[in-house]
From TrEMBL:
Pfam families registered for this protein in UniProt: DUF247
PANTHER family, per the entry: EXPRESSED PROTEIN, PROTEIN, PUTATIVE (DUF247)-RELATED-RELATED
Species of provenance: Rhynchospora pubera
InterPro entries listed in its UniProt record: DUF247_pln (IPR004158)
Protein name: Uncharacterized protein
Length: 299
């Protein structure tokens, strides 16, 4: 059933204040309601249809495969986010206002970014944007996992942990964490008189994950709270100082390198640390994690 355009307009008009609150407050003051809501509606409708058709295996002729890969990376960038509440209101109007519809939208978005439904633990809290939804799945501990593993503490130093080669030379054995539901669990256990096992989360590094990690670090920099993704990047930066370190982790199936040579992976880890250690000063200091850095007009 085709939904009249006026119904979409009324839904978005009712949450205009919340939509404006998600953007840098210095930008949309002189931005007319009609222009703002039109932009948000077009962006939201496109994203919903993109995720819906992707989940059905429909390949859009206007988006070739190489462009789709680039588009996925762009949609995880901080500056390209759309208020999730707008996506949700439009989707609920189409699918029916129910908790099941809310879960369905989240699953569609996450599947688009390569996260299957069986790895998702849903929250009753509405995310601020798609990056926030993606972040919650990766950074939040799964309540169904065992409590034997330790969630990463807050780390900002790059020198507090030896490299994988140094640990290996001192008898540390590396193992992949069998619980794949969270990338935030590590454990260090002595299993014998001199034998110690270090269990680490599996990290498949490709161009999408590299973009996602960098922008999740930015997201953490803007919020007041735990910084698990930054801590994870600190940990792997300490472990991967050279190609030999990458080889040790790869042999133990902890790291899967999909971005190029081992040297490039080391450089990516070092670059991630530069992002973490760099103070967030690109935008005004009052900006919060709920607000988007820029308001992008698509005409």
């Amino acid at each position: 059933m085709k939904i009249p355009e006026i119904e979409y307009w009324e839904k978005l008009k009712a949450i205009e204040g919340q939509i404006r609150g998600f953007y840098n407050p210095s930008i949309p003051k002189n931005f007319k309601t009609s222009d703002l809501l039109e932009m948000v509606f077009v962006d939201s409708a496109f994203l919903i249809e993109l995720c819906r058709e992707f989940s059905q295996g429909i390949r859009l002729p206007i988006i070739p495969h190489p462009v789709m890969k680039s588009l996925k990376r762009d949609l995880l960038m901080v500056e390209n986010q759309v208020p999730y509440i707008a996506l949700l209101e439009i989707f609920l109007l189409q699918e029916g206002n129910s908790f099941q519809s809310t879960i369905k939208l989240a699953n569609l978005v996450l599947k688009f970014f390569g996260i299957p439904e069986d790895e998702v633990t849903h929250s009753n809290e509405t995310p601020h944007h798609m990056l926030h939804l993606y972040y919650n799945v990766l950074a939040s501990p799964n309540p169904n996992t065992s409590q034997d593993n330790t969630v990463l503490p807050h780390m900002r130093s790059t020198t507090m942990i030896p490299s994988a080669s140094q640990l290996h030379d001192h008898g540390i054995e590396f193992h992949k964490n069998p619980e794949m539901s969270s990338i935030m669990k590590v454990s260090l256990k002595r299993t014998g008189f001199v034998k110690t096992n270090l269990s680490l989360p599996f990290l498949r590094m490709d161009s999408l994950k590299r973009t996602a990690l960098a922008n999740m670090i930015y997201f953490e920099e803007m919020r007041n709270g735990p910084m698990p993704i930054s801590s994870l990047c600190c940990l792997f930066n300490c472990l991967m100082r050279n190609e030999a370190d990458v080889l040790i982790l790869a042999k133990n199936e902890i790291v899967e390198n999909k971005i190029g040579g081992d040297k490039e992976l080391v450089q990516t880890s070092e670059w991630g640390m530069l992002v973490i250690m760099h103070e967030w000063r690109r935008y005004e200091s009052s900006l919060t994690a709920e607000q988007f850095p820029v308001l992008i007009l698509v005409k």
